[in-house]
Specification:
By secondary structure, the chain is of the alpha/beta class. Helix content is about 35%, strand content about 20%. It is globular. The chain binds 6-O-phosphono-beta-D-glucopyranose.
Length: about 475
C-alpha cells in the first residue's frame, strides 16, 4: 500500500548506528524539508530515557557526528523526538509502546536496528500490540541471520507480520550515490552496454578495502568474519548491479528481478578459488596497530580478509572471472570496481614497436567518487624511432561534475525511501536467500578442507596467496 509515514519508530535508538548515521540523517532530511513538518520520531531501546533526556542524548550524538554547517538545524529537529523505553525481549512493554506511538494517521515506518536475538520477540510484540497493521512498514538492518537457515527463520518471522511489499531489507551500499550511479553509467549510456559481456570483458575486480580493525565489535565480528560481514551483502549487491541484464524500468520489481537472476547464476566456488586472511600487528600509514588476535585477546579462526574468484554461469558472462576482495586493516580505504576489457584483436602498431594495453574502466565508489577509463594515446613527438603509445586516463570526478548538489549519506536516502515506501534500493527476500546459498557453500568448503585464515601484516594488501589467486590467471589486482 502506498503511503508516506507520518510516524517513524526507531528500535535501537540509543545504539551506535542511531548515533552515527540515523539521527544525523534524519536531522539532515528534516533541515532540508524533505520529511513532513509533522513527522514524529519515536525512539525506543532498553535504556531508560524520557523525551527530554533522549533529546539530550541525541543532541550529544549530533554534536559529534553532524557536519558543522548542519548544526543550526538541531534544536528544531530535536522537537520531533520522543522516547519510550522497552525491553523488546518481553512482550509486556509493547502495549505501552503502541500507546506512545498513538494514532497513526498516514502510516508508520519502523526501523529495526537491534541485536539479532531481539528480532523475533520484536516482531511478535509489534504484531500483538497492533503496530504491524496495514499502514505499517518495516526496515530491517543487518545482520539478518548468519546463514541461509537462520536468515529464512528471520524472514519467516517477519513475513508472519508483514507482507513482502512492506518489508525493507537494508543494504546501506545501495543507498550510496556512487552505487546508484552504476545503473546510470550502464543504462543511461549507449557506449558501454554493447561491450559489457564476455566477448569484450576480460575480468572484473571488486575491492572493498578498509583501514579500520575490530572497532570494539568483537562480539559481532567473531561470529561473522569478512565473508558474511561484507561479501554476503554489500559485495554481492555490487556484483549483481555490474552483471545484471538491463531491467525494463527503474522500479523495485524490474531491478530486483534482474539482480536475483545474477545471484542465482553464481557458480559454486571451487576449492582453490578463495583465500582468507587475518591481520597481525603492523602499521596503517605510520600508525602502529595491533593484530586481530591481540585486539580480541585470544586466538581465533575468523577471517578479516577474503579474496574470491567468482563466475556467473550465463551467456553474458561465460568465462569472465569476477575477482572480489575485502579486508580490514588494509593500506587504504577504497571501494572500487574495475572492468578490465580484452586486448585489441590486432595491433597496427606492433611493427612500430609500440605496445597497447587493454582498456580499463574504473568506478570509484569511495572515498574517491569517479569514473575513469584508461585509453591508449600517442605520445606526442615526431616518431623518428617509431610510434609510441601510452595509457592515459579519461577521468570524471563526480563531486567536480556535480558541484551543486549536496553530498548525502546513504542512510538519508534509505530512511526517506522507507518513510515514502520506495523499495527499489532495498533487498528482496529471494536476493538475500540466493546470496546466503552461495556463501554457505563457500563456508562449507572451508570447513570440509579445514581452511584456516593465513596471517597478513596490518597495512598490507592481505596474504600473498591473494596475489597468487589473481596471478594464476595472469591478472594483477588494481591498486
Ligand atoms: C558494515 C560492516 O556493513 O559495513 C562493517 O558490518 C564495515 O564491518 C561497514 O566496516 C563498511 O561500510 P562503509 O559504508 O564504511 O563502506
Amino acid at each position: 500500500m502506498q503511503f508516506t509515514a507520518d510516524k517513524l519508530l526507531l528500535f535501537g535508538a540509543t545504539g551506535d548506528l542511531a548515533q552515527r548515521m540515523l539521527l544525523p540523517s534524519l536531522c539532515a532530511l528534516s533541515a532540508d524539508g524533505l520529511v513532513a513538518p509533522d513527522l514524529c520520531i519515536i525512539g525506543t531501546a532498553r535504556t531508560e530515557h524520557d523525551d527530554i533526556s533522549y533529546r539530550n542524548f541525541a543532541a550529544e550524538a549530533l554534536e559529534k557526528f553532524l557536519p558543522e554547517e548542519r548544526k543550526a538545524s538541531v534544536p528544531d529537529f530535536l522537537k520531533r523526538l520522543h522516547y519510550q523505553p522497552l525491553d523488546a525481549s518481553k512482550p509486556e512493554g509493547f502495549a505501552a509502546l503502541a500507546e506512545r506511538v498513538g494514532k497513526v494517521v498516514d502510516g508508520l515506518a519502523i526501523f529495526l536496528s537491534t541485536a539479532p536475538s531481539l528480532f523475533e520477540p520484536t516482531i511478535a510484540g509489534l504484531q500483538q500490540s497492533g503496530l504491524a497493521g496495514e499502514k505499517s512498514r518495516i526496515g530491517l538492518e543487518k545482520p539478518l541471520g548468519t546463514d541461509l537457515e537462520t536468515s529464512r527463520h528471520i524472514n519467516d518471522a517477519v513475513a508472519a507480520a508483514f507482507p513482502e511489499d512492506r518489508i525493507f531489507r537494508i543494504d546501506h551500499y545501495l543507498g550510496k550515490e556512487t552505487v546508484q550511479n552504476l545503473l546510470a553509467l550502464r543504462f543511461g549510456n549507449i557506449l558501454f552496454e554493447p561491450v559489457w559481456n564476455a566477448a569484450h570483458i576480460d575480468h572484473v575486480q571488486i575491492t572493498v578495502a578498509e583501514t579500520v580493525g575490530l572497532e570494539g565489535r568483537a562480539g559481532f565480528y567473531e561470529g561473522a568474519g569478512a565473508l558474511r560481514d561484507m561479501v554476503q551483502n554489500h559485495m554481492l549487491q555490487l556484483l549483481a548491479l555490474v552483471a545484471m541484464e538491463p531491467p525494463s524500468n527503474y522500479d523495485p520489481t524490474s531491478i530486483r528481478d534482474e539482480k536475483v537472476k545474477v545471484l542465482r547464476s553464481l557458480r559454486p566456488l571451487g576449492p582453490g578459488d578463495s583465500v582468507t586472511g587475518q591481520y597481525r600487528e603492523g602499521a596503517i600509514g605510520s600508525q602502529p596497530v595491533p593484530g586481530y588476535d591481540e585486539e580480541l585477546g585470544r586466538d581465533s579462526d575468523t577471517e578479516t580478509f577474503v579474496a574470491l574468484k567468482a563466475h556467473i554461469d550465463n551467456w553474458r558472462w561465460n568465462g569472465v572471472p569476477f575477482l572480489l576482495r575485502t579486508g580490514k586493516r588494509l593500506p587504504e580505504r577504497k571501494t572500487e570496481i574495475m572492468i578490465q576489457f580484452k586486448a585489441i584483436p590486432h595491433s597496427i602498431f606492433a611493427g612500430q614497436g609500440a605496445k597497447t594495453e587493454p582498456n580499463k574502466l574504473i568506478i570509484g565508489i569511495q572515498p574517491r567518487e569517479n569514473v575513469g577509463l584508461s585509453v591508449m594515446a600517442k605520445i606526442p613527438g615526431l616518431d623518428r624511432g617509431g610510434v609510441r603509445l601510452r595509457e592515459v586516463p579519461l577521468d570524471i570526478s563526480m563531486p567536480d561534475a556535480f558541484a551543486g548538489p549536496q553530498k548525502r549519506i546513504a542512510y538519508e536516502r534509505l530512511l526517506l525511501d522507507l518513510i515514502e515506501g520506495n523499495q527499489t534500493l532495498f533487498v528482496r527476500r529471494d536476493e538475500v536467500e540466493a546470496q546466503w546459498e552461495w556463501i554457505d557453500a563457500i563456508r562449507a568448503g572451508w570447513a570440509e578442507n579445514a581452511i584456516k585464515p593465513r596471517t597478513y601484516t596490518a597495512g598490507s594488501w592481505g596474504p600473498a596467496a591473494a596475489i597468487a589467486l589473481a596471478e594464476r590467471d595472469g591478472f594483477s589486482w588494481h591498486e
